[in-house]
Amino acid sequence: MEDTIAAIATPAGVGGLAVIRISGPKSSDIAQICTSQSASYEPHKATFTHFLDPRTNEQIDEVIITCFQAPKSFTAEDVVEISCHGGHYIAKRILQTTLDNGARLAEPGEFTKRAFLNGRIDLTQAEAVSDIIASQTETSHQTALQQLQGQLKEKVVQIRQDLIDTVSLLELELDFSEEEIDKTHYNEINEAISEIKSTCEQLVDSYKNGKIYRNGILAAIVGKPNAGKSSILNALLQEERALVSEVPGTTRDTIEESISHNGIEIRLVDTAGLRTSDDTIESMGISRAENVMKQADILLHVIDINEETDPEPFQENGAPVIPIYNKIDLAPDRAKESQYQGVFTSATELTGIAEIGDAVIEKVLGRHHNGAESSDTMVITSERHRKALQSAVESLEKALVSVENEMPSEFIVVDLRDALNSLGKLTGETTTDDILNNIFEKFCIGK
Amino acid sequence: MEDTIAAIATPAGVGGLAVIRISGPKSSDIAQICTSQSASYEPHKATFTHFLDPRTNEQIDEVIITCFQAPKSFTAEDVVEISCHGGHYIAKRILQTTLDNGARLAEPGEFTKRAFLNGRIDLTQAEAVSDIIASQTETSHQTALQQLQGQLKEKVVQIRQDLIDTVSLLELELDFSEEEIDKTHYNEINEAISEIKSTCEQLVDSYKNGKIYRNGILAAIVGKPNAGKSSILNALLQEERALVSEVPGTTRDTIEESISHNGIEIRLVDTAGLRTSDDTIESMGISRAENVMKQADILLHVIDINEETDPEPFQENGAPVIPIYNKIDLAPDRAKESQYQGVFTSATELTGIAEIGDAVIEKVLGRHHNGAESSDTMVITSERHRKALQSAVESLEKALVSVENEMPSEFIVVDLRDALNSLGKLTGETTTDDILNNIFEKFCIGK
Fold first, then answer.
1. Is A373 among the domain residues?
2. Which of residues 38-97 of A touch B (CB under 8 A)?
3. CATH number of the domain that A168 lies in?
4. Residues of chain A with pLDDT > 70: what percent?
5. How far away is chain B from the Cα of A398, in angstroms, using its nearest Cα?
6. ∠A51-A56-A58 over CA atoms, to 5°?
7. A420 is in which domain, residue-wise?
8. Rounded to the nearest 10 degrees, how much is the dihedral formed by the CA atoms of B59, B65, B70, B76?
9. In this prediction, does ipTM exceed 0.90?
């Protein structure tokens, strides 16, 4: 029998109210003991009462208790939620009292883990709980919500069912037929596996965008000293975040801030201007800038259009580059010259700034993105899911080779079973403690 | 008719769940519209549903909705609580959707203000809501909880009732009697007013302790350079908070940290060592130290017992002083010498440290305090309450002078009415918008 866990479910800090959550067989008892109730609480009913320390009968707070009866709860176990006044002391004190009376402190993500272990949600839905809490923009939120509601799970369940059907067909032949599989049959099986493989590949490919939906676009603002990189950052943020001066080399350390553009998070990193410098701190900043450029999804190359620089921006690493021709207010006619392909901006007059966001999203997502559009497309957002699907694709490819070579059924079945196993890891039907720990240790406590 | 207000009731930040609270006549409608429900929600029932943006039908989150029907709610109005996944984006998005559908953003403390204006709680209870959230220790919490549960209110209601009885008696005589009040009667009235005055005075006096229960004790750690003040602070905090070195004058700015000792908060302020210094920054620190000493409830005068200093500590301002003879490990026998009256400590060996807390509480609260004891005593914790009660005491004193001079009833009644009015301000029966604004603007939003 599982033990009973408890944690503060609301963020730390001072607010109007805090919620302590208890899950497990002793939840109801603890709620009764700590509120001096002889009868058990009616499920799903919010009841106003006094919470007290049963050892001393000292009142701790006026609270609202809501009990949820297994399996109709977040964890599919008996759950009690205690809503108390916000503040540092009370929530901790109430939690401590539940621990003194039979609960133990929940580990990070343990409530969600129990929901998974009790079969209420699959592993992709459990992961979505964490994503949904971390989401900062409409798109990351929508993607996580779809996953929470089981869209990915259903898709994978469907793929697995198709695979199981194919395996069954092959095994049936294995059992009842002494004859070899005929040519037409091989063609049918080839077709079935190819279709499954194609569905998996589409999902693998969706990770490119899904990753962006979930984590945003990392855009490094790079360029020569005094091109106006920090001014562009400030203009994008609509605040004076970065120190700006006319002295080249003002920005030394990298500065990272996020904006949401059409529902997509763009993580902007302002970097030190690239030049050879004798200043040690500035040199360290330039080295950091070079590191950021390696990780970036896109480079915003800021160029002072009034400087006689090569209009062709550098293209050192794989990330695509958007040239930002800045200080256009000082040379308005240059924008008409055909050698300049990029965005024309004036950070001081705030012109061309929104176009930067449009250009970033178009370049990275390959089209003009808007929030609503993305919600119709099924994407995966987790490297773990991509790996599992990729591994399934590889097994399916092996199976296809066997089919093409008209190998006996058992050879094909082995690879199809591997694919099934990979997909099972994705949804958590086959999984290990390591995988689970790795997933849930990233959760916050109380979820 | 009141409008409908909404706010996020849980602290900002990332957690398992967040709660958005709506109060006012439109609450139920907003809940129905935003969850596509045709029927109204059953009161006090926690219902799992999907929250959506009614303009676009876009789903925002899976939530639990609990409706509370007027007057059985926190504000005594219709209230809806929406419990959603924690995280920056969702709670804000849900709040925005309620605002788009008929609510307006609540001001700080507006939920509690409505509970007061609707007569569910009096003003002392409303203030206790804020105190209970801010409380950091058992004693501050218990004091606030008692006040929230109406102990002060009931006490003041009783005092007012006694006053009203006396006034009625006097007014009855005014109306029906042409004769002068007789001597015996003056004595009776004198006795009644004296008793009321004495009760009020006891409450005024309780503020000395009540203030400490609520705000803690401000203890300034003072003394010569290198006496070990920062080491004492670190030992009390059980961490390396303050920079410590053998160089006199290490601490320049003041450092404030809190500990809880026997349920009482002690706010420790480490100060720069007092000496004449040519260093500008150190001199500024010393000047700050002198300011802190003026505000402190108690001074912890740290003395290196191995230095040939005057064992009698300075007593410049009104605050009591506890001599802390430090570095006793280097001179263990000195503790036996009779000229040293104070606490003997070794910050390096952590001896005598708990005794500092005991000594502080005994000196400030005038006895050996423990948490449980204080909960039986009625105390006031607010300067506003002290002023109102003090003002009542002064009116009662005037009334007593009139009684002693055997003045006509109407003279006595005028002063008794003033006292009633002062007490009415305390509980909020007679109050002004200024007083209310002043109280509720200190609340957090969502309470």
1. no
2. 44-47, 56, 58-62, 66, 68, 81, 83, 85-90, 93
3. 1.20.120.430
4. 92
5. 41
6. 40
7. 129-212+382-440
8. -100
9. no
